[in-house]
Amino acid sequence: MFIRIPSSLEILKRIGAIGGKRGIRIYLVGGPVRDIILGKTSIDLDLVSETPAQQVASILADELKGKVTFFPEFLTARIEWEEGTIDVATARREYYPVPAALPEVIPATMREDLKRRDFTINAMALSLHPDNFGELFDPFGGYEDLKEGVIRFLHPKSFVDDPTRILRGLRFSARFGFRFEETTERHIKKDKDGLLLISGERRRKEVRLLLREGLPAIRLLEKYELLPLLGFSSLHCINPPEDAQKLFSLSDPWFFYFILLTWEKEISLLERLYCLRKEEREEIIKTRKIVELEDEKEIVLSMRGLSPAALATLYAKGVTLSLDFFKKIDTLKVETSGGEIVQKGFQGREIGRILEELFYLRFKGIVRTKEDEERWIERLKKG
Ligand code: ATP
User: Which one of 37, 180, 254, 307 is at 20 to 30 Å from 336 when CA atoms are compared?
Assistant: First the structure.
């Protein structure tokens, strides 16, 4: 079967032709093939060839005037060129020395390369060679599953080999509204404890991508009883408002949902499970504290420096002032510097207090310009 490739993806033809001239067959594989069939026109360029990636990437980089980096231990290469990034891999097999660990890779055929993938819908390749440009290589029935809206793993040991595939499956199910095939679904329930074995960095990466999909993804985590395994509270406990993501313009809502889902949990647990970054840890602690505050000024001053995700969390927790704060955020800048306040005759702790007061007055709309600030300081001086 041939797939129609939109003309906006002219680059694919170019890549195929560059390979073709040297007798090399290059394929587009995985997610981007799925996305083209689903009608998307913006895709990742993930390429595979049975010819070593190093050779393929060098040839492509030469012709496209790009810069190439090799990752020999993974048999992959990355080309950076004027229009973006191209990932090239040698067709490879994977071997799991221990379940849930990272696999070792060995060169292989295209078929074997597809066989190591997570789901049938992600296990297709498109030939880019001029002889058969656009021909679909689909050994596991991914096309039909895609049309039917079904997520099906490739073999029953799949989730034992790599438990993160469970989270990946949920991600695609949430994103496309697809259902799990029966056996695959049974194995989610059977093999889910494997999620306890994966490293913090892998858990972090997959959970982050999953929470990006928003509430539908969290509902699936609840449905498959995965929330406790990830250190999350149940959905009815967190009860996130549907509109928060929009109100706070969160293009990636992961951290918003993450703070909510872990609200009741010890920070040390989150550090262990998710390798929290220092800034994230601090933001979570600060957000939790603000919810306990009562004084408006104290709340406003504490919200300084918080990310939109943390402000959205406060909103979800009933601190509705955070929405007002978010909307005004661009106007909330005190223009008078500490030095200027010193020149006006103030010193020590007074300076910080004046800056805070000015910030709060900006928030209240009482002070709007630098002249307003100066007038207010003058008045303060006169007592
Ligand atoms: P997205 O659209 O969210 O980027 P994607 O399918 O492109 O999703 P990637 O993480 O970029 O996902 O992975 C690219 C491809 O690599 C997948 O489509 C799949 O074929 C394969 N893959 C990725 N992770 C795994 C995994 N853990 N196990 C098996 N195959 C995987």
Answer: 307
